[in-house]
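Problem: given the chain below (92 residues), write out its structure.
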Amino acid sequence: MATVIIPTPLRKFTNNASRLAVQAPTVEAGIQELITLFPDLRNHLLDAQGQIRSFINIFVGNDDIRNLSGAKTSLKSDSIVSIIPAIAGGKP
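Solution.
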């Protein structure tokens, strides 16, 4: 099973789990599995069209899925998936 690393701001929606195992062939299927288990994640990860929000960065290993096959990026049993929400703010 692939392991999804949940960022701190989203852990309140996953019963404070920092890592979750998903049995999914693609990133898209893995996200759907997470949303099935934790429906409150939907609004934070997906837009109204069901696409991964543009400000959410997802990496498989060290590779941004935007540089791979996007949401269709394949997962292996030993894949590590990192969800990285964009952080804004601070002083210029």
